[in-house]
Structure formats: C-alpha cells, structure tokens
Amino acid sequence: MVSTGAASTLVRSSWALQDPLLTEYYDREWGMPVRDDQGVFERLTLEAFQSGLSWLTILRKRDAFRAAFHDFDPVPIAQYDEADVNRLLADPGIIRNRLKIEATISNARALIEMQAKGQSLAEVVWSYMPESSPTPTEDSEVPSASDESVALAKDLKHRGFRFVGPTTMYALMCALGVVDVHLVSSHRRGCSGLWNRDGSRVEQ
Questions:
Q1: Which PANTHER family does its entry note (predicted)?
Q2: Which of 24, 44, 76, 137 reaches 20 to 30 Å from 14, CA-CA?
C-alpha cells in the first residue's frame, strides 16, 4: 500500500499507516537487526504480550513495560516473586495478564539458565535465519509463520520458554530482521543490510 501525505511516494505495509506511532516504528525500527540477549528478550516479551492484541497497543505501553520490568534485564526479572506479580497486575500502564506476566518471569529464568551454560538467546534466534526471505508484493502475501519459526518455537519451548508459538516467533523474526517481509516495493525493503530486494541473502 502507498502511504499518503507528505511522504506519498513511500510504500509501506498497511498496518504501518494506521497511526503515526506505527509509521515511525516501521520506518526506524521494524526489521532492523537486534543481536544482544536483553534486546531480543524485550522483543520476545512484547511479542508475547501482543498475542490477541494490536501492536499499536503494545507500542503505546512500551515505556511503561520497560519501567515495570526493569528495562527487560532478565537478572532482576528472574528473581520476581508473587509480590512482583501482584505489583504488575496492579500496574495500569502494562497489559495486566497473569499468564503472560508469569511467562515473562519464567522466560527470564530460562534465559539466565541458558547464559549460565554459555548459550545466547540472540544466537539461538538468529540461527534460524532462512536461506531466502519472502518477496511479498502486497500485504496478503506476507506469511504468518514458516518452517524456521516452527523449529524455533520448538527449540525455545524445549529450553523452558513460554508463549513462544510459531506465529509469535515469526513476528519476532520479522521484527529483528531475521527475515525481511517488507513489501518488495517498500523503501524499507532490505533495510537490515542482510537481505537483497529479491529475498536472497546479502553476502557477508
């Protein structure tokens, strides 16, 4: 879809046109590589909270999430107890869903356990980068999951992570640039520097 207004020549996905906050996210952040554990953990957590809701809702609450969850540092989150769960359930700035809050704490503990073994969440996620990326010409052609996201979900569940289904993991992979699902005609296609416009990998 072609955006309207001053930047009318720029092509964006339709979801990015629904609110200025979404447009800014699309133009500056979505699909850009994130390779540190804390950054990946934040995005994994927010994607899990987004399940059943709009991404705009999450973006509007992101600063409140960061404040409530120690800036997504897994070390303090892994120490949360029932009092912290109750604190979070009483926080109107975030999504007050007990299952997702408890999953975030559990996932922080799983991440700490990985790191204690010398493993990296970011490296695991990036290890599922496919050989080629989709080449959608319209929004309806953007996949909701892939063989790689199914395998990543299975891997993370085996490591003790929760709320990491194949669709959520594909959304994470798209957000991190592990795959590029920008429309082929979009000015953001290939913004990660990892993918060519035709869906092939950039030679490193």
A1: DNA-3-METHYLADENINE GLYCOSYLASE 1, DNA-3-METHYLADENINE GLYCOSYLASE I
A2: 44
